[in-house]
Protein: Thioredoxin family protein
Amino acid sequence: MRRAFIALAAIVGLSAQAWSVELGEDGLHKQNWFSMTFRDVAEDIETAKADGKRLVMIFEQRGCIYCAKMHEELLADPEVAEFIKANFMVVQYNMFGDEEVTDLDGETLTEKTAARKWGYVFTPTLVFLPEDAPDNVPVAQAAVATMPGAFGKWTFLNMFKWVSEKGYEGEEHFQKYHARIINQLREEGRLNAE
Structure:
């Protein structure tokens, strides 16, 4: 049966790895390297820092075709996945979930009320947090970058690299950083267009 799925995937142009992404009971796609936490954001920032990583929160929802694309194409790409795993702790949030969340300002919410409070309305939305947990500000105010939606490989990966390199502290806006990296990739022959 698996061979039939792999053959079908090859016919329609999907990687066999895309078929290995599983759905959880909540209907969200799961990566075995995502972190399971108590969703205390300050604690998660400190845990990530202790591991030499940064915290990124990903908001998703059941039935989201863009979330599926992110998991099946972007997170299935070894170059993307390995960079993220090496540099970030990823915690998944359900846009309409009821799990308890503790905001950086100390407020206890559910995932869905947190998403509303922080103004996240698209899925997936990736929220990149600072290296140190700020006191008494909500996540949306503390975030160093936010990526609403699923993009192509290089936009997606370059956002992670820009945050990892603390590009948000410098003068080079993400879009200029991304354009510079794309030009380098073209010069190296690794990219035709994006």
About this structure: Residues 15-167 form a domain with the Glutaredoxin fold (CATH 3.40.30.10).
